[in-house]
Design brief:
Layout: H1 2-15, H2 49-57, E1 75-76, E2 82-86, H3 91-96, H4 102-114, E3 123-126, H5 140-157, E4 161-164, H6 167-174, H7 180-183, E5 188-190, E6 193-195, H8 201-206, H9 211-225
Parallel strand pairs: 2-3, 2-4, 4-6
Antiparallel strand pairs: 1-3, 5-6
The structure holds iron/sulfur cluster.
Length: 228
């Protein structure tokens, strides 16, 4: 309850135009961070985050291969308790080869910090590994071509909680007909992971008045992970 009051106060500070979080909560237990990649079942092909990143770096499965600067496979802990999924790299990410850099990335980093994590303790990825030109929305053929990379990443990462950021990530995880407004505020499932959809940080930069709802979503994710 004390933690809840603290977080509520931190959010109230943000609503007043200051920061998402001025205090970092206790870092979650590190035991799960030490977990190794799962061993493949007998006869199953081995897989690894590195193999996925290598394959994506050379990938030409869809038309975005022709216009990308760098592939952005994702980054973070090898065995995170929580994974954040966005829709696709933007201009900054395409230039740096890393997910969620730039202004939206800075906001996501503060959101993660408000939950008591660092970026290194979570995993951050996108549905698409290459930037759509002009930051347009991902197209169905691109999502179909690229989705297997994220599917394999999530199988290896085996997080307790997945937070899709925005409608495209929510649709990939929960079904093509969903809207972010229709699915946020409830807990969903992807395999054994709980799915807690929330708004994309880029949307929150345009609509800061929605940060309160996003904070409620992050609190729901924290409640699943338990007291720390
Ligand atoms: S977006 Fe995905 S499927 Fe398309 S070229 Fe990039 S890595 Fe390959």
């Amino acid at each position: 309850m004390a933690t809840r009051r603290l977080l509520d106060r931190l959010w109230a500070e943000d609503a007043a135009g200051r920061s998402w979080c001025r205090v970092r909560l206790q870092v979650p237990p590190a035991a799960s961070e030490k977990r190794a990649d799962p061993a493949p079942a007998d006869g199953a092909p081995s897989d690894s985050l590195e193999a996925i990143a290598r394959e994506a770096a050379a990938c030409t499965r869809c038309k975005l291969a022709a216009s990308r600067t760098r592939v952005v496979p994702g980054e973070g802990a090898r065995a995170p308790r929580i994974v954040f999924v966005g829709e696709a790299p933007g201009a900054d990410e395409d230039r740096e080869g890393r997910p969620f850099v730039g202004r939206a990335g800075a906001l996501l980093t503060r959101m993660i910090a408000a939950m008591g994590f660092t970026r290194e303790q979570v995993f951050i990825a996108n549905v698409l590994k290459c930037r759509p030109p002009g930051n347009r929305s991902p197209e169905p053929d691109e999502i179909a071509a690229c989705g297997d990379y994220l599917r394999r990443q999530l199988a290896l990462l085996a997080p307790e909680v997945i937070v899709p950021l925005g409608a495209h990530a929510a649709r990939w995880l929960l079904g093509s007909a969903v809207t972010i407004g229709g699915v946020r505020g409830r807990i969903h499932a992807y395999g054994t992971a709980k799915v807690v959809p929330t708004f994309h940080p880029s949307y929150l930069l345009r609509k800061p008045e929605e940060k309160g709802k996003a904070w409620e979503d992050l609190q729901a994710a924290m409640a699943i992970l338990g007291p720390r």
